[in-house]
Structure formats: C-alpha cells, structure tokens
Amino acid sequence: MVPILRQLNRAVKQMLQQYGCQQINLIGHSAGGWISRIYLGEKPYTIHGDVLEDAGLWEAHSSVNTLICLGTPQISQECWTRKNLDFVKMHYPGAFHPQVR
Asked: What predicted TM-score, i.e. pTM, was given to this entire model?
C-alpha cells in the first residue's frame, strides 16, 4: 500500500498547488476507497513494517472536502486484503472524520 499512498499524496499535493485551493474532492474506486481512508486517517499505516510512522502519507483529512468510494469493499475475508481492511475498519469506522463529506 505504501507506493500507492505515496502516489496519492503526490497527486493531492499537486492538485492543491496547481489550482491554489485548500481542499479537493477525492474519488476512490475499489481498493482506492479504503486506501483513501488510510490516507485521511491519523493512525500511521505501519502494519507491514515497510514505512516509518513519520512518512507523511496519512493525516490528510484537512486536505479533503469529500471522499466518494465506488465499488469499495469495506470488509474482507480474503487473506490478502483482510489485514488492510481490518486496520481501516478498526481505526476509522464509518465516515470517521465529521468534516469530510
């Protein structure tokens, strides 16, 4: 997930700078929805040991006005996604950040 979080972070920062705005609307399809929830959250996503807590790839909720998830699984029984989705479900239940629509 870390390479995807890095790419997402670069894209968001680029859009904020390019358009001179404070917030963006973010649309995530499939895994992009729950990866976006990790990106918005305060809890460092270090469950795989491949990134440090201060990587700056989360806590982006102040930069996002709206998060739309399309076709996003929010729970999983599949072994290759369960650990990730359990992290999201446990740390960011529901629409977690009240200021993000």
From this structure: 0.89
